[in-house]
User: Fold these one by one.
Assistant:
Number 1:
Amino acid sequence: MDTCIQKIREIAFQLLDKKEVEKVIGFSNGTIPMATSPITIASKQDTEKLVFNSTCGLNLANYIRQQKGKIAVIAKGCDSRNIVTHIIENQVKRDQVYIIGVPCNGMINKSKIKSLFEDEIQKFEEDGDSLIIESSSKKEKLKKNDYLRENCRLCQHRNPVIYDVLAGDLVKEQIIDVPYPDVEKIAALEADARWIHFQDLTKNCIRCYACRNACPLCYCPTCFVDESGPQWVGKGQDKTDINTFHFLRAFHCAGRCTDCGACAEACPMDINVRDFTRKLNKDTFDMFGWEAGLDLTKRPPLDAYSPDDPNDFIK
Amino acid sequence: MKFITIDKKNWAKGIEKSRETYRLFGPVKDKNGVFIRTLEKDMLPDMTINDSIMSVKSVLFPQTEKILFTTLDEAKEDHHIMKRVEFDSSPRAVVGIRPYDAKAIELVKMNFDTDDYRDPYWCDAYEATTFVGVGINKPGPFDFSTSAGTGPFSESGLDVLMADLDNAYLAKILTGKGEAFMKSCGFEKNTDEKESQALFDILRKEAEKNISSHIDTGKLKGKTVLELHEAPFWDDIAFACINCGTCTFVCPTCWCFDIQDETKQKSAGRFRNWDTCMSPLFTKHATGHNPRDSKTQRVRQRFMHKLKYFPDKYDKGIMCVGCGRCVKSCPVNIDIREVCKIMNSYEKNN
């Protein structure tokens, strides 16, 4: 993946040089270890600022709506699926985005890595399949594959599903026999234990809404939690209100979520909000054979009507 | 100034003893990191971690606080008349906070306790609270407190400052409140004032030397508000921002709140919740007009408030204590140190 950055920069340079796009949306280096930051590049001289590595865990499809003119965007497998979803949902037009596809080997689980250290990480380097991480008290060399985010470990769409150009060779897709082990584990719990699991999951939520705001799907002009007339949900730290937000947000993403992991990545409290969305991803897969963002010609199952729908109530 | 030595072997017992008088709060490890929470029975403050994810501000200013209540039952004489929720004025102590958090309380006080207005909820809590801090021997890489008007052994805002000496704590009593707390713990072993102060000075210098992160705010004052407000860099700074409120919620100096009324059958409550200037709702008028409708405007507001409006209004330095929490927690790595650098070095027509 580290070799593709030169290619990304070259492509971006050419696009801006030939004025084919107004700007390129990508990642730049962060100011702290294991951080990268979304950036927009409008001048070809600035294309050197673009980087791509295993810390680019946010989803850039979240940044392509409401842009003026034609833009280019760097897209991993999941980002590209959200671009497809945006196109289907009329949030962008296909000819308005130039997609620089990046075949992806997975992003790292930053909190898992942080938990190996008592003190703050001061240095992070990536060398092929190895991660070299240093704090003031110790140095660790880790195998990247052991520290992938859960969604990346279980990902079956590492290659972009839609692109105008590729910045690297396509990678081999993983075949995952049990794609939802986490959902099955929670589903197997007794009702009480399941409730406790979710109560514990959201315990530290501060309602910053980073999960919602990092999500490309959450583009409602006014989110239901922000509505004031009528007010659907209380705004304080009452547990019922916090859970209402998480439950409803997840339902709103049913059949649309690509499990890109941006929500969990953005959460300052390390809440794995994917525990909610993945259950619905599994349901839409089991019931409709549906995975979001793979096909520009098909609408998500929950906003489509079909005469041969298996359910009776609709007929 | 009085100094007390506390053998760590006696620490737990002393803390336990203080519960006869105080409700205790302090750093507590949870699954995602350290939080400042109520110390339930048998819980001790975690004195080993440099900083907590959330700051100490919630002890005086909870994220959600019921402030008033009333009945909607019109058969009752006092229906619809809001009354203050009974306030627990019993003494509370926050033990093990970092000096920059205490400095932040002082900054927040400038807002809640002014000549014209006294916020009763915050001020009553403040008056009931004793702040027992512990110096940071080894500041982390995100700590830029020394260039934000405080530091790893800053005394400002604290009632007691302790130094961790491996087997013992050396406590410097800074106020009468601090003295009363130490007495309630049974910690009364005085030590030589001169020697103790010398030791504090050494520890402070050593710790300050270890601070590797700095900001320069020297030129901000000389620039006009409009010059910075109209500067061309805000769109670039704001681009990555997703407008979550993480930076404001983890910030020990962010004090903005929202008032919400909630009703349940015949009872009604008025709550105050933390609010965030990152949210479009923060400034949305009842007319539907929003003076800070764009992301850039909101991001600019946050940094202008911290680094320009506040220093201009109060002349007490910036509204930031350099704890680095927002730097670490920001999902898109917007770094106040970088923004400060851009603002401080900006020259119009440059």
Number 2:
Amino acid sequence: MAYAKRFDGRKFDELRPITAKVGIIPRADGSAMFQIGKTTAYAAVYGPRDLHPKFMQNPQTGILRCNYNMMPFSGHGERVRPGGSRRSKEINMVMEKALIPVLDLKDYPNSVVDVFVELPQTDAGTRCAGITAAAMALADAGLEMKDLVAAVAVGKVGDKVVSDLIYDEEAYEEEGGATDIPVAVLPRTGEITLLQLDGGISPSDLKKALELAQVKCREIYEIQKKALKQKFVVKA
Amino acid sequence: MSEALLIKDKEIAVPGEIIAQGMGFVPNKGVFRDGDVLVASKLGMVSVEGKVVKLIPLSGKYIPKAEDKIICQMTDVLLTGWRVDTNSPYSAVLNLKDATNEFVARGADLTQYFALGDWIVCKVTNVTSQKLVDISTRGPGLHKLQGGRMVEVNAYKVPRIIGKDASMISLIKNATGCEIIVGQNGLVWLHGAPSQELIAAEAIKKIEAEAHLPGLTDRMVDFLKQKTGKTPTMNEQHQTTEGSES
Amino acid sequence: MNNEQKKHLITYLANGTRYDGRGLLEWRPIHVETGVSQSAEGSARVRVGKTDIMAGVKLALEKPYGDTPDQGNLMVNAELYPLSSPKFETGPPGEQAIELARVIDRGIREAKTIDVKKLCLKSGEKVWSVSVDIVTLNDDGDLMDAGALAALAALQAARFPGVKEGIVDYGERTSTPIPIDMHPVTVTVYLIDKYFVVDPLPEEEEAADARLTIAVDEHGMVRALQKGGAEKLTIDQIDKMVGIAVKKAPELRKLIK
């Protein structure tokens, strides 16, 4: 039997309901919240600031450092033990690579821009929500950026190309199962800065999925834009 | 080719947003050209003067530049000077010779001049390409800050807090009777009676929040009048204690 | 903070006010919100002024400890996230986080907040284990009291997950709450010079000579204490601080009932 109807009733190319807000953490130099369905990411930016340890300093440019963490109670099942894992280390790295192409930190030699992402609740797509929130937080911090970055997972569930998978879809086991492809897109040019995949997909469906990611990331960008501008609307 | 301004003067643009199209426009700070469009490269308020389009930043860290008057805190005592926190990504060094013209014997206790935790108002004298920063406390209006309290604001709002020819800050000073020193690095030092300092601090925070909206001076006059019960006056004479307009 | 800066802060206290215009024993506006994480069995977010803290409860089935075969387990953990302050760093919990967790743990445990006997499914074999995680979102002072309040609010909001053939089914949520008998809240009283304050701003935390965290239950009983700060306290001062806590505790408790 084909995957005829999504578990949560959405259309195959439909995103879950989204809310976004900028400036949620007053102590930070920039911050944002991005919620898509039951996945919520908070991002805070500190910096540019002094970088320790000193051997990591780069005299040519400031560096970007990402730190992704799921709160202990944010998992799908049992409590998530606090502290880094191999998984979170890899996510830190791909987040940095997803964001650095738009950032220009040359004016800040030897310094670091720290991005912290915390997730209080999750239902798949956490790295994408993290990147989307982080991009807003970096803009809020007043950093030089050629573009924002928006991210969403696309993929295949059964025989259908879909956007924004949930846990239950990732766990789909019939007809070849599910393929999960987290993608980050620079909304203006459509270029891709995060791309991972697990599952199995034909090259032609992959292209279809990536084109869908482009369209969906531009939808997300409109929400990011609105949230950033909203911060400067002062209640009279 | 059609020419159009897609985001109007004084409106907010976000990174990657196309502000204008057409080769006639000239990009300036915070804006870059890509083909026939001008794109925002940071979050800011669009400013259009003739054909020149730039962005006025609304947030971000202070970056030291020479001649700025800033407020710093002593974080370490060195062999021949002090390490200070500049409320920016870069710390600065205050050399003994830039702190006093007294003769200081080798090995003397430097904390008799400045101790750890002391606040100073100083001037940035030099910033290298690698952001090594030198400061000085020698000069008019530069000194240690005795007591008082600090209010932190967005460094980009400092010009509005000071106002044209220091008009805004003198308004607050006259209304509250507080001593106020505004550092370009976003630190504002207040010294006065607690009840008056509270009014001054609230006024400064109000300017910070509403700096990008029109009619600021009128609103501040009303605010101070309501808080102090008297109409505040603007001081015509130039005040030397606050940071210069940037 | 140097001596002159501290003296300046004390001038405010002597005038009965503080850097944000509050009275000495006055709290900033407090907002309690529950259900902030649908992944947790119970969750709450507490905002005290700009201080912002969350607590989440996870429930699991475990083997009881040998010496308490018919009792469930309680664990309280706290993380001071670097997202919430430039002063916090990544890595394992430091002294401040551990103190925060342990003091809140003691308050909940000693007040017999949870009837742990009711958490036993099968003596010696299967009991519920309650994990409370307290995490910071924005530090603007008074994390201890805000954290304790968030922990209690999250415990109250928690509902047991379903159980199928002895295994927890986290996809199902029952309507059964955790058996909560008592509602201890903590009030931390700070001593600055000769003045007592509650709900400190970061500057006040820095200027404080000593602090005393006091967990108080609804009968006005003291359930946990923790003295902090570099200076000493007299019995008379402690008596006054406890008096303040007992008087102020109901203000906090009514926010979560």
Number 3:
Amino acid sequence: MKFRLLLVFLLSLVVIVGCNPTNTDVSTGGENEPENESGNDTETESGSESNESSEPEEDVTLTLWHIEDGPSGEAIEAAVDRFEEKNPGVTVEVSQQENDPYKSKLVVAMGGGNPPDVFSSWGGGWLEQFVNAGQVKEITNDIDQDIYVEAALSASTYGEKVYGAPIGMAVVPVFYNKEIFADLGIEEPETFDDLTAIVETLKENDIIPFTLANQSKWTGSFYLMYLAERMGGPDLFSEAYNRTGRGFDDEAYIEAGHKLQELVEMEAFPEGVNGMNYDTGQSRQLLYSGKAGMQVMGNWLVNNVRDEMPEFEEKLGFFLFPAIEGGQGAKNHIVGGVSPVFSVSESSEHQDLATELVKELASLETSTQMANTAGDISAIKGVEYEDPYVQEISDVLESSEAMQTYYDQTLPPELAQVHLDTTQALIGLSMTPEEAMAKVEEKAKELLD
Amino acid sequence: MGEASTQKHISIKVQTKAAKKRKEILAIIGFMTPALIIYGVYVIYSIFMTFYYSLFDWSGIDNNFVFQGLENYITLFQDEVFWESLGNNSLLVGASLLTQLPLGLIMALLLFSPIKGIRFFRSVFFMPFLMSTVAIGILFIFIYDGNFGLLNALLEMIGLESLQQAWIGKESTAIWAVIATVCWQFAPFYMILFRAAIVGIPEELYEAASIDGATAWHRFKNITLPLLMPIIVTSAILSIIGSLKYFDLIYVMTMGGPNNSTELMATYMYKQTFTNFNMGYGSSVSFSMFIIAFIITLFILIGERKRRGVE
Amino acid sequence: MIKRIKQMPLYVLAIVLLLFTGLPFFIMVNTSFKSQLNFMTSPWSLPESFSFSNYGLLLEIDFFRYFMNSLIVSVLSVIIVIVIGAMASYPLARLKFKLNTPLFLLFMVGMMIPIHTTLIPIYLLTINLGLYDTIWALIGPYVAFALPIAVVIFTQFMKEIPKELEESAKIDGCGHIRLFWNILFPLLTPAVATVAIYNFIHIWNEFIFALVLTNSSDVATLPLGLREFYGEFTINVPAIMAALTLGSLPLLLVYFVAQEKIVKGLAAGSVKG
């Protein structure tokens, strides 16, 4: 008898358990309606009625998720304030997260059918995943495309359709310690041979030529991107990515891999690069203390310096990654990227308001504030830079003939991961360039063909 | 229900026996229901859903569920990185069993020895387990650093410069460096677990033994260890399961690198799920981890039952 | 004198273990008093000048609200886990019925599932239960996922309690409830302390559920709040160490109290014996 009772009990448990998966199916399986329903519960209890008309008669709450911290975060808050002022009755709930947790949080929210109305990204392959999943609203005709720098807007444009509006950009020069260069009588290099000569000179003087924290992986990717561009020219990557010519296993890529490994063998990088983390500052530690001479890094390095060791800024100089003799690339072809990009969720109940919010975020005012307080280059035309350093970087960007966006942000995430992993293995000398590039090409075939 | 005890009370009428049984059933249900409800709603449901997702090709962010049966599992079997991470998990399991449990036991026994300032020792011994994983991760990244790391500095102090290296920067040493950190972090948990068990051993047993003139080692071997056996088995199970699904420190310290050399099943699952947008495949990794842990646990429990049977 | 010499190896061992276990904690505290620059240039030295400025930074991030949220969530979860976990263990350890072993295994399997792939179902469940972005959104999963280890440890310890105690209580006419609460539960003190410490620490430091199941800073727990020290490309290490040092104090306190309780339980037990 006790057995039967327990059975009944367990069965009821199964019913409890069994019910929920069906619920799940309803809310993820059904198209938009159930999603909106669950959105109602938590976001906007009062605003749900004002669905049809974009002019809100009642209070509306929009949610905004982003990753900007410090001064850039303040610029976002300022834009939100302006938006709230222009739209009385609308409140914006802002949630700021750090990079990696942000990605997980957004994936779960999208998967659970309850995404924020407006969210930030880097454009490229990551945003494309959400676009392909039908989670992002197209805003091609809602925004004024002419105000944005073309290269920046292209990061969130997929087949002529625009899914996000950019605010800032970054470029990647080679930073160096001017004091060390002056002491050793080193000139900024014009060619790759010059650069290897500098590496030799620094080695002879017991200075680590390049500091690099490659546990983070995207840091090492800069070197490969530059070497590949300098070998194969500005079209190499787009041909491989769009599958219109050379592939990721092209001779130029393999040669770039060899050049990278030559640098490793010359001991151009610190001991144990693959275990060092950029965020914790291990690579910058070497730069600040004068133990290392150069670092290939995005222009945000200057912000790091200003935070961590302001007196180092006067020693900090930069040059562009030199061309390789016989290669098809040129010194003024630069690697760079776009961040942040703001997009509207397809399942947002207040798409029009959310689009307005995006326009306010990706406006000249926001990007001017970001440029002048956070040192970002503007993705919106017409910003007047107060900071001479940002002006200088911005000039570099304007005078460049081609911009290569970061592979890891442009490629689909899964392929990006293979690129990052194989590049790390190249730097660890545990893979030959041929093997590494074949692996990337194999994944590219699987995902892109 | 205990047959022996019921037989003892033959005089008690059959009716009361039935009443007693009904009472017992009520007790079982009453005592277990709260736990089973909350456990069923969250945990059993999650396990079920993990298996359910693992049958689909699903990115995790759309409504496009493509049913494909066990195909994810077939892919998994051919996935080199998964096998590599399973290998790393096995190393972690082995190392955990061989270091965490003995170290925990030694520390627990030490807390019963007549040394002065035992409260102080007791508190400090426990500190690794008390520190947040984020703190441990960040500190050990610096400790293992090849250029200015503490470990290398210590090696230099004792004249072992030849061993100096970038501990988590090299594929050959990275996994060991990480495993050592994990073991360091968890040993104190077993210390308190064993301590709690040793506390429960009746003092008289030791008193009788010391009258017999048994040495400390004999007392340990003949009294403490046998009585601790059940808790050691439980600890072993906890340690194995914990090591099989370990995630935190790897995520902070190496993210599975360099070149997958510290990849564990859980970090691989995380990457597949959240970086590569393969929720379906990630779930199949999760569920495989679950099955592996389940089988091992079952074996241990059966083995333990046999051992008890022999005794 | 001879006794002292005999104890020498014990002291050596204890001090070696002391350094081994205590050094990182010391480094954490030490780092928390340094400036970022001081840490960058010489990570292992003592602070150039003791500064509490990192602790001052904590005031800027609403540290105490996060701290209180964490405290409420952790304390409530741990109490619930201990009560319902110990209750569930009673039939498993002391009563013999057919579903004994299967139910024990059922509780055990909860330890084996990695939580990351359960995030979406639990997120959905939380929204459907109307708990999203409240502290109850966290307490549910925390209790549920802490139950297995509690049940396993409690069952183990309860099995070791001599049967005679129970028999005599039964003769006295004790019901199951009184037997459990008045006789068995007090004897479980060492196990309760262990389970409480273990789960308190885990819940106190838990990050991923908190990240996904809450959104507003009103209900954010400490591990979430600490993320404010993470920049897009940089971590302010000394500031984080300050926060983590302060954040670990309650754990130290819980541990200390729990351990004292074990000692007291021990004393009480021996009087009885």
